[in-house]
Amino acid sequence: MNEVANTYLALLERFLTCELSLVDFQRTYLRQFNNETRDMDEALFELLDEFFGDLDSFSADPVLLAARPDFYLDEANLRIKARDVLRRVRAGYITEKVALTK
User: Fold this and answer.
1) Closest CA to 53 of 24, 76, 85, 90
2) What is the rounded CA–CA span in Å between residue 47 and residue 8?
3) Is this prediction's pTM over 0.70?
4) Per-residue CA distances from 40 to 36, 43, 55 (Å)
5) Domain limits of the chain?
6) How far is CA 27 from CA 2, 18, 55, 58, 85, in A?
7) CATH code of domain 3-101
8) Distance from C-alpha of 41 to C-alpha of 54, rounded to nearest angstrom
9) Whole-angstrom Cα distance, residue 2 to residue 92?
10) For 18-59, how does the pLDDT look when each residue is reduced to its tens digit (9 = 90+)?
11) Nearest 5°: CA angle at 14, between 1 and 76?
12) 94 with 88: CB under 8 angstroms?
């Protein structure tokens, strides 16, 4: 596993074990990803970018969640997405799309 992947693995693990609050995790992940200067392969970038969008779609506002459940994520669903990203990074960034084409 490379250094970039390890950075995001550690961050995801800290969130999923509640070492980081959701607010701190969101702020740290978004800042880390926006300021990332290290080279990463395309598969990792696409996975982390997809999760960036998931984090951006998080809302604690019940009105927004009810109005647009197809767009906004609550904390429980964000944690599900984070567990999936963690699993996929550990598996070497394999996505379901790639697995289906083989």
Assistant:
1) 85
2) 11
3) yes
4) 9, 8, 20
5) 3-101
6) 23, 15, 9, 12, 17
7) 1.20.120.650
8) 20
9) 10
10) 999 999 999 999 999 999 999 999 999 999 999 999 999 999
11) 110
12) yes
